[in-house]
Amino acid sequence: MLIQRRFLLFAAAMIFMLSCVIIAAKNVYAVNLKSFILKPVPIPKNNPQTKEKIKLGKMLFFDNRLSGDGSLSCASCHVPAAGFTTPTRLSLSYPTTMHWRHTPSVIDSGYLKFLFWDGRATSLEQQALGPISTPFEMNKHIHYLTAELYEIPVYRKMFRQVFHAKNIITQKMVAEAIASFERTIVVTKTPFYSYIKGNKHAMSKKAIAGFKLFIGKASCIRCHYGPVFTDNKFHALGVPPLHLTGKTAKLVAVTRHYFTYVNAHLKNSNKIKRDLGRYLITHKKSDMYKFVTPSLIDIGEIGPYYMHNGSIKGLLNVVKFFNKGGGNIPNKSKLIKPLHLTLKQEYEIVAFLKSLDGPKFNITSPKLPHFINK
Amino acid sequence: MLIQRRFLLFAAAMIFMLSCVIIAAKNVYAVNLKSFILKPVPIPKNNPQTKEKIKLGKMLFFDNRLSGDGSLSCASCHVPAAGFTTPTRLSLSYPTTMHWRHTPSVIDSGYLKFLFWDGRATSLEQQALGPISTPFEMNKHIHYLTAELYEIPVYRKMFRQVFHAKNIITQKMVAEAIASFERTIVVTKTPFYSYIKGNKHAMSKKAIAGFKLFIGKASCIRCHYGPVFTDNKFHALGVPPLHLTGKTAKLVAVTRHYFTYVNAHLKNSNKIKRDLGRYLITHKKSDMYKFVTPSLIDIGEIGPYYMHNGSIKGLLNVVKFFNKGGGNIPNKSKLIKPLHLTLKQEYEIVAFLKSLDGPKFNITSPKLPHFINK
Lengths: 374, 374
Description:
- Chain A contains 13 helices and four strands.
- Chain A is mainly alpha-helical.
- Chain A has three domains: about 15-40 and about 190-240 and about 290-355, Cytochrome c-like domain (Cytochrome Bc1 Complex, Chain D, domain 2); about 50-180, Cytochrome c-like domain (Cytochrome Bc1 Complex, Chain D, domain 2); about 245-285, no CATH class.
- In chain A, the strands form two sheets. In chain A, strands 1-2 form a two-stranded antiparallel sheet.
- In chain A, helix 2 packs across helix 7, helix 4 crosses helix 7 (about 170-180) and helix 12 (about 315-325) crosses helix 13 (about 345-355).
- The longest helix of chain A is centred in the N-terminal third of the chain and has 25 residues, at about 1-25.
- The first copy, chain A, is globular, with a radius of gyration of 22 Å.
- The interface between A and B is medium-sized, with 33 and 33 residues.
């Protein structure tokens, strides 16, 4: 019975896929729906998932003691109920500091080739220690982090059990545990996934129309393809800058100088008016103003602010931004051109994007251990 | 007239000195009062004092932005009105961290060969960046410190004027400016200094009796000699440990682990029950439990807590501690033996110590600049 059912589903899916390729062909891009099927999240060989490691990683993710003054945890910016991102334009940061980029979501981050907007990490293990240690985010001395965790009996025991290491907690272990937890933050139940598996009623007509535009006239698919809808590449779009005045001018100033600091080769950094993006990492002129293509899974849930600096509010405005051909910036991607979409079509694309939303995450905060056994 | 007066003073001083040597001779130690005369504070050749640099250093000393969350400045622990130390047993520290040593005073620190209780810095320039960057004190990322200062127009201008460097503020400059200000924190007007300059009425009879004990029966002079009363050496005294229970047990634990961290060679760090002092820096067994001899100038003003861990309250109890021959500790200094002082004599030594106090510092907090010109 089961085999028969599976076969029927498979056949239905195949037929649907073929039809989709035909539909798409009319609109320039041939799309194989198979390419959207979500495989299990890749697990690195040197950091296998275990139940205990994931549990430990979850605790660390929620523990404020991972910040310098005990005021922020990973979950303070990657808020589970807000799609594991921050529901404000910019990331939270530590008192007396300010951040200048919008928090990327953790959702499906296990599928990404590049982490951070400028792609400076290429694994979740590499990513995890960055926000903990930077003075613009959690500002924890990485040496004190491991020293402090070691003095919490429950953690000491858990790290020993998970990593089979006696009397030591290392930065690497902390990063691996957090990454293991993050690899469990995967959205599998979206209307779109149901649709491509053969459930034609999973998406509304409007959303299906949006999908056709997405892979056709609007050509979103050029950058947003694959199971989590990203090419894992970097593009300059000309996203509007944030207009910061008065008190928040400090942000711009600090940003600039931080960029100068880590990029001592930059001349006249005071005249830099935009976030240089990928260029700050590669120092290649061709990477100027480029940011990585984000995943679109759960895109509705992670709103209302979008883009690397959170400057666009609401999905409709994101679509409008692309419809008018992006912003005005040197080095702009040649893929970004006016789309001539009607307002109706813009709404259809938004409807499709919302079909990439999974159910709300219902993650309860773990019980955190004390500094002394009790 | 002036020359004559000077000559008379000099002659009087010489006669007094000789008499003092005689007095001291009766009590074992021959003391040349000339050795107590305070010379101008030594200025390193590579960091000359300028009025502007001192002004800048004072501003930095009082600026909370030198801590990671903007809650602490140098002056938070080195409180001018409390003799440039902390009027609590232990140093203040950053939220979620705890310190385990008592704040040394800044007063006359320009004369010292070693800074910190374990002597890990040998100049004020070296010392200044330590408390700013350690997670157990101000917890400021040293890279962000210079970036942030650079974004404050007034500081940017001042650093340029003081250090003749364009478009840059370095850690070295910050340290040099703070050190320059600290070298101005010198106590010159004590009853004792007046006394050795020839004013016999500057000290009470009780204090003079105390001085005789100090250089005689009590033999304090063996370690506390010279203009600021220190041999600049390290001794193990067996100072009582702080009895920390419950919540504050964390302190002990963190201390131990911190020591382990910076001293990875230490085995069984969990079994360490005392601060290992100088040993943590030199790794020589002969330095175990040793701490540097502090200056005694302004010793009354910097109370009520004394010793490296602030465990002794009040000068009388400090004298009593030495009178009973210090504490019970391996590696204890052979200079520390029971003194057989009477209670009256203990009080006399306290009276002498108080004659080393200068007038209260009356330092007003400087006006601190804004992040934007206004």
